[in-house]
Every structure is written in C-alpha cells, then in structure tokens.
TrEMBL record:
PANTHER family linked: SODIUM-SOLUTE SYMPORTER-RELATED, SODIUM/PROLINE SYMPORTER-RELATED
InterPro entries: Na/Glc_symporter_sf (IPR038377), Na/solute_symporter (IPR001734), Sodium:Solute_Symporter (IPR050277)
UniProt superkingdom: Bacteria
Keywords of the record: Membrane, Transmembrane, Transmembrane helix, Transport
Protein name as catalogued: Na+/solute symporter
Amino acid sequence: MNAYGAWIIGLAVFYTALLIVLGNIVRRKATSGEGYWVGGRNFKPWMVFVCITGLFSGSSFISILELSYLKGISAGWYGIAEMLHVLIIALLLIGTFRKRMMVTVSGLIGDTFGRMAMGVAGAITAFTFPMWSVATALSFASAVSVFTNIPITLSVAFAAVLLLIYLQAGGMWSVVTTQTANTIMFFVMFIIGTIAFFINPGIDGIKHLAAAKPAMFSATNVGLQVIISWFATFLINVLLAQAAFQMALSCRTPEEGRKGMMMAFGANIFFVFFGVLFGLAAAAVVPGGTRGMVEVPRYLATVLPAPVVGLFFLGIWACALGWGASCQFSGATSLGRDVTGAINPALTDKQKVTYTKWSLVVLTGEMIILAFLRSEQAAWWNVFAWTLRNGATFAPVVAALFWPLATKRATAVSLATGFLAGLSWYAMGHWDPVKFFLNVHPVFFGMSVNMLTMLAVTLTEKAGSYKVGGQLSAIRKNIAMAVTLMGGLSVVAIVTGFNWLFTKGLLGLAGFLVVAAIFILTISVTTPVENKKDVKSLKFQEA
C-alpha cells in the first residue's frame, strides 16, 4: 500500500466512525415502527433532498464517471434519464402514494391483494436490493484496489458491515443523517476534481482530446440502443422505485416531499456535468485503459498530493454508501416488515422493527456472498436484480393502483410467472450481462409475461362481472387512445424494421411496448359491473 492508499483507507475509516456515531445519536427518534421505517413522517424538504441525492445522484455519478472515460459526453444521458425518473415521481406519484400512507411497494401490493402476495413480493424485493448495493460497491472497490493491496471482495465486505452497523441504530433517521454527510462530501469531491482538471489537462487538454478522438464528443457515441435502454429502464422503474418512495414519503406533507425531490432533480445536473468532465480529464491524461474507475484514480495521482486524492475518494465512498444504505434499508424493510407480517399478521410494529434489524444482518450476509460469487462483473448483478424484481412486481403494482378488477389469484400467478420467465430468459442467454438470448433483455420478457398473466387470469376469473367501454371518463379515453397509438406504432416498427431492431437490441423493448399497450388499454376500458341488475343486463347482452 502506497501513500495514496494509506490516505484513502485512513480517511474512509475516520468517516466510517463518524457515521456510526451520527447513526447512534438519532437512535432515540426511531422508537416506533413509523419512526424506524419512514422517519415518523416528519422529514423536511431538505431531508428528502439529501436522501434522494445520495440514492440516485451518487450512484449515477459512479456510472457516468466509469463510462465517460471510455465513451465521452454521451455517458451523460444516463444521468439525464435518472433526472427524468425523479421528475416523474415528484410530479405524478408522491401525492397518490402519500395519501395511501405507503411504506413499501410490497406493502402496497399486500394491502390490495392479501398476505400471500405481500410475502412473495416482499421476499423478491428484499433479496434483489443487495444485488444493486454490491454492484456499486464493486465499482468503488476496483478504484481502491489501484492504490492498495486490499482485495475487492474484502472492500465490499467492509462496506456491507458498515451499512449494517449504522442502519441498525436509527433506521430511516440514520439514512437521512448519513446522506447529509454524504452530500457534503459530494461537493467537496467536485471542488477537488475541478482543481485537478485545471492543473491537468485543463481546457487545452480537452480541446486536444476532441481533435484526437472526436467520437468522445458525439452525443450518441455510447450507442443509440444503450441510451434508449437507459430511458426505458428508468421510466419503467417509476412505479417500482421503493427506496425513493420510502424516503420521499417520510415527508410531513406531499408538497414538501415533492419540493425535496425537485431540489434533488436540480442538483443532479452537477453530478452529470462533473462525472463527464472528470472522465474526459482522465481519458486525456491517462488514455488507453479499459476501466474508468481504475484510470480516474491514476489520473488524480499525477496531479494531486495523496491527502487530497484521499478526500476525493471519500466522495466516491460516499456515493457507494449513499446508494448502498438506501438499498439495504429498503430491502430489509420489505423482509422484516412485509414478509414477517405476511407469515404472522399478529406481529406488532415493535416486533417488525426487530425483524427488520435482523433482516439487515441477513442482507449484509447476502451482499458479501454476492461479491465473492461474481466480483468481476458489477453490471451482471444490476441486470439480475432488474430482471427478478421488475419482472415479478410490475403488473401487480399497476393493478393495485389502477385496476380494481384484478384478483388475488391473478396477482400470485403473475408474480410467479414473471419471476420465472425473466430468470429462464436470462439463463437461456447463459447469464451474460450484455449478450442476451435472441438479443432481448430478460427484464422485458419477464415483465411482458407478468402483464399477460395478470390479464388472462383476472379476465377469466371475473368473466361476467365486468364491462368493456361504457361511460368512460375523459382521462380513461385519452389513455386508451394514447396506448393504442403507442402499441400500433410499435407493431409497425416491428413489422417494418425487425432486422434493425433485432440488431440494435431493441426488439425486446418494442415487443414490451406492444404488451404494455394491451395491458394499459384493458385496464382503461374495463370496469366492474356495479350491481346484480347490471350483471343480468350484461349477461343478456352477451347472449
């Protein structure tokens, strides 16, 4: 370990100790279930701001920094897609979910469709969150390994245990306290990185890079299909972003939660800009590498002294912790609150809090195991998590919010079939994180099966007790027309551009849009028959 490594590790240990102290200070605020899971619904806008910034902006910065070294400014689209994701949640969903007093997505499913659905959804949700945590932790660990002899897996284990220690104390209050400290470190990191940039390569160095590698300054250098996939992923995730909901819904009012998210939306501009800038700077000074998170520390070591580089990487550490803490805590909430509540509905909130703390231990163990199983491909765990969680829970969440016809049996079957379909499709692609079976992303296949199953079982089970059309509201009519247009255009695109879509890896997305259009159209035009007279009338019309 050289001087740079010693400073990075030393500062990380000091920062870690500080977080543990802060986490224990707020322990007294988390005495009840609501206090532990959602901060007693007492968060102010700035608290929501630091939570969402630590959750999304920090992880986006790592992804953009990594990719901009290789692909240039086009990596910024990842952050823009994430910003759109936050904006939609803030403008359209906070009010609805706050009125329902929602804590978790799996809890929302359980409130509508019963204990079995809640237990299954909670288990799937809980055990996928550590996969996202380990993916970001692996990226950070690869950067640390440049200056130290610490194995990547050991770095991830250290991060996992740290998350366990300070989350145990105050739950959501520990999260907001930690995210406040992380947000401060983000901006310290930006200042240090900017100083390094002006020392070398400076503006002239970037101009030279543009002349030598003009593709680095192409808006689509990363690939059009990749950019489209980013936006599609974040848009799909709007209804399933449990960790973000849990933070924003800890607010005192929906308006304050919305304000905090809008503040986070604006702050993310800095993360996109500086992520791209620092990646380009590293590409100009230390070209030829294959990993941005490896080359950026090497670049910084050429222009800054060890203590300052250590401070910069304390910001990267904060990014990893900001994402990991949110994921681990939200996953533990689903496991400790929803799964145990499904198994034994007689449990008190106090008992569920205890189980949530034990769930943190379980998910910590899972995170460490995952790092040992596949430490060389951080992206693999992201794909696996998206496939399992989204493939299972997308249709049940939409049905819980917008389709009163949906049944408990349809929900249970759709959870199982969506999960298994996505898992099977990934397996047929030999578990490759990039090259999928038939060039179709497994999450699109899983979610399509998930929606079709929900429709088929519900419409069969409720045959004769619903009507199609009738006096639909203007909103329902507009939605029906919009999704019909979307589905029609997708069908035309598939028919006329099948080969292009297949080659670009967009065929799965196009097929998913067709299925989603059918799913949303059905929800829009079907309504329950209100009474027995209406049922008799409906049966007469069918005859």
